[in-house]
Amino acid sequence: MAKISEIEPLVLAHTEKGSATWASVMIVVKVVTSNGMVGYGESVPTLRVINVYNTIKQVSKGYIGKEAEEPEENYQEWYKQDFYLARSFESATATSAIDQALWDIVGKELGAPIYKLLGGKVRDKIPVYANGWYQDAITPEDFAEKAKEVVKRGYKALKFDPFGPYYNWIDEKGLKEAEERVKAVREAVGNDVDILIEHHGRFNADSAILIAKRLEKYNPMFMEEPVHHEDIEGLRKYRQHTSLNIALGERLISLKETAVYVSEGLVNILQPDLCNIGGITVGRKVISLAEAFDVEIAFHNAFGSIQNAYSLQMSAITPNLYLLENFYDWFPQWKRDIVFDETKVENGHVKVPDKPGIGVSINEKLVESLKVEPKELEVQEEPVWVVKGTWKKYLT
Ligand SMILES: O=C(O)[C@H](O)[C@@H](O)[C@H](O)[C@H](O)CO
Ligand SMILES: [Mg+2]
């Protein structure tokens, strides 16, 4: 048995930026055991880098001294301790990263990748969809040109947000702009590529319904977060008035919260994020919950290369997988380099990496050299979650 002896949050940054402001920083968690084993996890940065960094230190108090080989027991104990876990994104993402690192350690001890610890893989290659590819795209032509490049690289599905700066409400002009962009992408990629529409949870139900009616003729495979995250009533209304698939899940932070959406039939494609749902321990339960209700899984995978590695492990064991989100080809180089060349996208697929634990080898030297003091992100007119350079209308 190995006791958890050290938990270290590491904030990594580089001058080369990510496709969205909040993706320019990575928060890595390094867990060390009394017998010298090391495991890595990743937390979600968003606008809360300092808060997450500090929360990892607080959550660590509940994990240090515990058995590294018992992530389930440790999660249950922390669930008992942290009265606000189900309401705190910071606690959820800190707990998730520590949990991942524990599974990494167990895998390394047993000499097996995580997928083997969880029943084995159901596929050797993970089908992925592209995101982050449309930086600086404003006009329909911009979108079409970039979409063609994505397809040329071998992707069979791509996601984008065609709504520019529209927020809460959309008017005729906004609908027209969104439609022209979607139409241009559909014409550019043909009918055999899946188009996924990202709303970033920013519309009221009536506007989201208007959008669905307007875009359904382009056969989007799903509509992601069409209404504000906490607007369950709005989502029910959207469900009643539209027939397109709903995708959501990146902001869910517990199993029971997820159960509400799944059991009420409010989601077709569930997008849990292994860096805030509760790591591997809760992630595996969410996969089964979805399976029981015939809901497909497409892990949210928008931050860094460690998240990507865990998402690949878990996609390997998921019978009800739709696709895994992927930024790999649009990551800044430093994020790709944190993991040695093992998660390349080829023909729209990533081979399941099979090194012990996380499945890939981490460039520890690079991680050390990218360490910075945590600091606040600047707030600009274009929100941090937007793919950069797209928060503009193209008609005057
Ligand atoms: O589904 C997603 O991936 C998310 O909603 C985001 O994480 C954004 O797309 C990201 O901010 C763009 O870089
Ligand atoms: Mg999203």
UniProtKB/TrEMBL annotation:
Enzyme class at the top of the EC tree: lyase
EC identifiers of the protein: 4.2.1.39
Transmembrane residue ranges: none
Reactions mediated catalytically: D-gluconate = 2-dehydro-3-deoxy-D-gluconate + H2O
Any GO molecular function: metal ion binding
Signal sequence, renumbered to the chain: none
Pfam families: MR_MLE_C (PF13378), MR_MLE_N (PF02746)
Domain Mandelate racemase/muconate lactonizing enzyme C-terminal per the UniProt entry, residue ranges: 140-245
Entry keywords, A to Z: Lyase, Magnesium, Metal-binding
Family (UniProt): Belongs to the mandelate racemase/muconate lactonizing enzyme family. GaD subfamily.
Protein name, entry field: gluconate dehydratase
Biological source species: Sulfurisphaera tokodaii
Organism lineage: Archaea, Thermoproteota, Thermoprotei, Sulfolobales, Sulfolobaceae
